[in-house]
Write a structure and sequence with these properties.
Residues 46-93 form the Zinc knuckle CX2CX4HX4C domain. The chain starts with 10 loop residues before the first helix and ends in a 16-residue tail after the last helix. It is an alpha+beta fold. It has two domains: 1-73; 75-113, no CATH class. 14% of the residues lie in helices and 19% in strands. The structure holds zinc ion. Residues 79, 81-82, 84, 87, 92, 94 line the site of zinc ion (ZN).
Length: 113
Amino acid sequence: MHNIPERSLKIEVGEMIGNTIGSVIQVADLEDDGAGSEFLRVRINIDISKPLLRCFKLCTEGKQVGWVGIKYERLPNFCYWCGRVTHRERDCEVWLWGKGSLRKDEQQYEEWL
Ligand SMILES: [Zn+2]
């Protein structure tokens, strides 16, 4: 989870956001990633039949304080067309329906994932 305001860099915030994505297994100790980092590393169990969430609106006391970017590590498969991890892009329905007419830059998901 990137782009988190410094005062929200807390284990509880990682758990709160993580639990909207799936179920949190563990939030990494902030110390482990070095001081001054602006991200939280969270291990989460996710429902792989759904597209992955790319960002999260962070609110405190009802006010939006920023957008949290979410990146994923250690995905065995990932489809950049539809954001699912159940297949690779060549096997994607979105890709197959497009009959090869889709271009890379039309993908909803980018390599930074
Ligand atoms: Zn797909």
